[in-house]
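Input record, target 12 of the design panel.
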């Protein structure tokens, strides 16, 4: 598989009090994972490092600037290369400003394993993006005690 021409994105696993912060993506056609729970993050700009990109995206999307992000891994998909970082969420959910997406929430490991969670804004349960669920389950397998 030639990954040179695929877009590269940087995404963040943010955890707080044993839960994970996810974004409920807008439910509009034409975007990746419409109406699904997914990570915050986005495209890496030309000349930008993946670490700089994830920090920029977090600032743009939720007005959050972690001091340090740690690299978790790189996931190759048929249409995108995901650079995955992780960091503790050191502020309350109410202190974040959602600038992109339908909703955000701290999802429990049980909700992640079930692959769905309720959204207040949507007024219904919505499913996790399949790839996002796999990444977070991999993270829980490796760093379960980090988040407890």
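The sequence produced for target 12 reads:
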């Amino acid at each position: 598989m030639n990954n040179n021409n695929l877009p590269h994105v940087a995404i963040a696993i943010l955890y707080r009090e044993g839960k994970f912060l996810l974004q409920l993506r807008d439910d509009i056609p034409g975007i990746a994972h419409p109406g699904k729970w997914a990570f915050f993050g986005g495209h890496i700009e030309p000349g930008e490092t993946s670490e700089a990109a994830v920090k920029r995206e977090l600032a743009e999307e939720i007005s959050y600037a972690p001091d340090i992000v740690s690299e978790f891994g790189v996931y190759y998909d048929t249409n995108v290369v995901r650079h995955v970082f992780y960091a503790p969420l050191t502020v309350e959910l109410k202190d974040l400003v959602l600038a992109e997406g339908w909703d955000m929430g701290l999802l429990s490991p049980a909700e992640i394993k079930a692959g769905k969670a309720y959204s207040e804004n949507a007024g219904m349960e919505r499913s996790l993006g399949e790839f996002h669920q796999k990444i977070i389950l991999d993270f829980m397998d490796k760093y379960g005690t980090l988040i407890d």
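The first strand starts at residue 8 and ends at 16.
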